[in-house]
Amino acid sequence: MKAQIELPDAFYNLTQITQLLKEILDEIQALKYSNYNEWLNATDFCKKYGISRPTLYKRAKQGVIEVCNFGGDVNRYRMKINNEE
């Protein structure tokens, strides 16, 4: 004997699933950009993005990577997001 699902219930479940998937995708997108835009020291930045220090300095000079000194001797680096200026 097959279970019968009424059409309105099936439609409601599909709507719920669609909404849940949209929320999950929004959270993934937010996490992607929050991790993408963090300030790192040179060692951690090079390790995360798989580049050498000379490449880091070159890309920072080109403006692809942002550099900031929050005080002290250590600069922090982060990738520049396309729409940031």
Topology, element by element:
Layout lengths: L6 H30 L5 H8 L3 H10 L2 E5 L5 E5 L6
Antiparallel strand pairs: 1-2
Description of the structure:
- The model has no long low-confidence stretch (mean pLDDT 79).
- This protein starts with 6 loop residues before the first helix and ends in a 6-residue tail after the last strand.
- A two-stranded antiparallel sheet has the order 1-2.
- 56% of the residues lie in helices and 12% in strands.
- It is built from 3 helices and 2 strands, in the order αααββ.
- The longest helix is centred in the N-terminal third of the chain and has 30 residues, at 7-36.
- With 85 residues, it is mainly α.
The number of distinct helices, counting runs of at least 4 residues, comes to 3
Fraction of residues in β-strands: 5-15%
- Largest sheet, strands/sense/barrel: 2 strands, antiparallel
**Which whole number gives the mean pLDDT?**
79
Question: Which overall shape is indicated by the principal axes computed on the Cα atoms?
Answer: elongated
Strand order of the largest sheet: 1-2
Rg from Cα:
22 Å
Structural class: mainly alpha
Helix content: 55-70%
Instruction: Kindly report how far apart the N and C termini lie.
Output: 63 Å
Keywords:
about 80 residues; mainly alpha; two-stranded antiparallel sheet; 3 helices; 2 strands; about 55% helix; elongated
